Amino acid sequence: MQLPKRVQIKEVGPRDGLQNEIMFIPTDAKIKLINQLSDTGLNYIEVTSFVHPKWIPQLADAAEVLKEIKRNTDITYAALVPNSKGLERALDAHVDEVSVFMSASEGHNKSNINKSIDETFPVLKEVVDGALAAGKRVRGYISTVISCPYDGYTKPEQVVYVAERLFDMGITEISLGDTIGVGVPTQVDALLQEMLHHFKAEQLAMHFHDTRGTALANVMTSLANGITKFDSAFGGLGGCPYAKGASGNVATEDLLYLLHEMGIETGVNLKKIQQTALSIERIIGKNLSSKLAAIARGEEES
Ligand code: HMG
Ligand code: MG
């Protein structure tokens, strides 16, 4: 099997994970967790999000978190930004990199950011222009790339349509999200085959939610297609508003185990990520779905 030698992990737990937790994690605890993540060898952490705090109250403390964390100059500290108002707040808090986001499907885009797909492009263009003018790199997310909870299956050509417009704005990388964690390897393969007709593998990252336990299988398919960047969340944090009780992003520690055992380097310390997963479990008072966190918990208890 042809596999890459090295993969970059983009840790999105503090944003994608914590935005989905019912409990508001105290600001101090968030800062400590991010500082703990900064000591694991990760070189990219998505710290928070500057969306409307009414929509995501769990991250209403975005500015304070970004300002108070201990920065390691080897790490990019990114944040999600939906519009110019969000960009202004993110720049004020000294964000390193901006992530804009939209969906490949109309139903999810409307429900998530209150606009049609075509109405979203000018809003994001303003963010990208502003971020680039401030000397920041911009990453783009495309959600619901496999299927949408409102519109059903997404055609790969629709993902290409959105990606082309985002790249035209000057975005350096696009993360393709199986937002509701329904995808299976044949679908991921079909999507990537189409995407790779138009874009280079280095321009793409994959963002799998493990709602139905298919995330690592989808990672394998992506690796076989030459993808070398993956988003994941320590502990497998998060959930899915469309599937009650479901697990969140693929767990960073489970992904690391898979990659390291196959001889793929990441530069990230598995044990330290497992410890961070146990830290958040203690804060929220429940066990998360991650397999490697369960093993670390078992080792601590015995
Ligand atoms: P809207 O209500 O259409 O916004 O929301 P608006 O532009 O009409 O403004 C309404 C009011 O909100 C105004 O205040 C604005 O100033 C204020 P007023 O003048 O009435 O007093 N406002 C803001 N305040 C603070 N920060 C802001 C901001 N923007 C406007 N940034 C908006 C549109 C996009 C803001 C809203 O729909 C929103 O915040 N949505 C966020 C949804 C979200 O965070 N979803 C989860 C993240 S996406 C995700 O998880 C998927 C991903 O992980 C990948 C995957 O899994 O596929 C990335
Ligand atoms: Mg996500």
From TrEMBL:
* Stretches assigned to the Pyruvate carboxyltransferase domain: 7-274
Tell me the leader sequence span: none
| SUPFAM superfamilies found in the cross-reference section | Aldolase
In terms of Gene3D superfamilies, this protein maps to:
Aldolase class I
Which terms are listed as keywords in the entry? Lyase, Metal-binding
Share an example GO biological-process annotation for this protein.
L-leucine catabolic process
What GO molecular function annotations does the UniProt record carry, in alphabetical order? Answer: hydroxymethylglutaryl-CoA lyase activity; metal ion binding
User: Record's family?
Assistant: Belongs to the HMG-CoA lyase family.
Q: What is this protein called?
A: Hydroxymethylglutaryl-CoA lyase
Source organism per entry reads Ureibacillus chungkukjangi
Q: Lineage of this protein's species?
A: Bacteria, Bacillati, Bacillota, Bacilli, Bacillales
